[in-house]
Amino acid sequence: MGINNENKVMTAKEAVERFVNDGDELIIGNYTVGTCMELVFEICRQRKKGFTVYSQSGILDVDIMINAGCVDRLVTTYVMRSGGKKGGGALERALQAGTIEIEDYTNYNYNARLVAGMHGFSFMQVFEGIMVTDIFKKRSFLGDDKYRVITCPYTGKKVVTVPAANPDVCIVHVPRADKYGNAQYWGALGSVAAAALCSKRIIVSCEEIVEHDIIKSSPHLTIIPAFRVNAVVEVPWGAHPTEVLGYYNRDRSFYGMFIAANVTADGAKSWLDEWVFGCEDRKAYLDHYVERFGTGPLNKLRAKPLYSAPADYGAAFTSVWDNAGREQTLGLTLQEIETILKERGLLYE
User: pTM value?
Assistant: First the structure.
């Protein structure tokens, strides 16, 4: 677990080396947008393997990790499988080859597992309607533990439960953070906070590292507190080709390029060799992008400013004690207050 006042800034390479281990349960914290692509790439570069991956919305990220040989098991609600069983895609190829196991949940049931883990519960009740579906009936590596039906101790009614999720490590991308790990996020949140906070270790990548005073000026945006974070990685364009609100849009052309390559195993390998293994870090990746396509496509993606109105967090004073050590309302020091209470028999020691 992280420490609140420790500088946790490091490179993606250092963070993955220190906090991601072969065989981990690893959760991709982002949901649909702004995903942690550079952290995914770095895990692949380091040839980490044997993961049980949790992902609520696998699009490029999950298939990239499967293509790189990182994933043995997958817990998910959705992975983009273009073309269905006859179409291309790393997950489809792995399922047909029998090299991966998958456990499928609904969005609600997947989130229930994360929320249970975040709050320290061992399970969470979900709606019993799931029992008539194949999601409930068909089970893979979780077996009986995918769902359990128990008797409610209050009503005697049979209720359906899912087990808490507590992955070993979460990788997540946010717009900004400070050097201590206070991570701020805005836009479509989904399960991002729960995915991080249910995990044992957290690696945060961000578009920019800002001063702690900026974090303090907008506390409502902090979704992951510093004491839970193990590493902070500043990586501009770290979610490309996905989007980050306030920074850049989705790169649709680049998406299409990957999807076309991913139709075959050979195409996927060539793509990874060029964009993942052939680029030592995100800077090299961006340099290669500019070499291939010029600066125009990236500049076109840059967000146009649209700032929210500032909120006033001002107060008459920040502490009930003034500079002289007197309580603001009573005008007495703590020692004077204790003396009065003791005289009246109200002080208990």
Answer: 0.92
